[in-house]
Structure formats: structure tokens, C-alpha cells
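[09:14] KT: can someone run the structure on this one? pasting the chain below
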Amino acid sequence: MDSKQAKSNRDRGAEAERQVAEIFRAYGFETVRRGQVFNRESDVIGVPGLHIEVKYHKTAKVWEWVRQAEVESEIKKDGVPVVWFRRPREPFRVIVPAKLFMEMYAAWRREQEA
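[09:31] RB: done, C-alpha cells below
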């Protein structure tokens, strides 16, 4: 990969991180912003309890991404590892640990039944 292509990939990744931060802000998380890569922060910070990695790729490398999020969240002790990812012209998808998904789903069901 030449330096021009590498820069283009970094730019697309940075844009995806800004998009995820904007999604969180739209849901009321006003202090969310992109993290500082050189400081090994998660890609998006300001969401308490979550270590967020954001990926923008044509080809999903899900296990690699999940492992990166797990390792970095363990080092930083900043929350549950979560991976947001998407391909060009597609919406974001989110990978969360099953326990967190079930807690969120159970809370949603209780709210629907109330």
C-alpha cells in the first residue's frame, strides 16, 4: 500500500469515527468525540462504560477487530469492548458481548411491556 492510499484509508477511518461520535451526540451524549490514537484511547470517547473501536473497511476482519477492542479495553480499563463497523454505502453495525446485548434487550422488553 502506498502512502497516498494509506492516507486515504486513515481519512476514511477518521470520518467514520466522526460519524459514530455524531450518532452518539444525536442521542444526547453531548461530550462524545474522537479519541487520540497516539494516546491509545478508544476511537470514540465520552461514552462511560464503553471502549469503542470504529472500523470502515470493504472486508470485515471481525475477530481481529474484536480482539483489538478487548486488548485495548483491558489495558485502559475504560469499559466493555464494542466494535462499530461498516462498509462503503452501508449502515453501521455494532458488535457487543452477548451479556451486554442480553441486558440491553431485556431492559427494552421490560420497557415495552410497561
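[09:33] KT: thanks! Residues 3-26 form the longest helix (24 residues).
[09:34] RB: yep, looked fine to me
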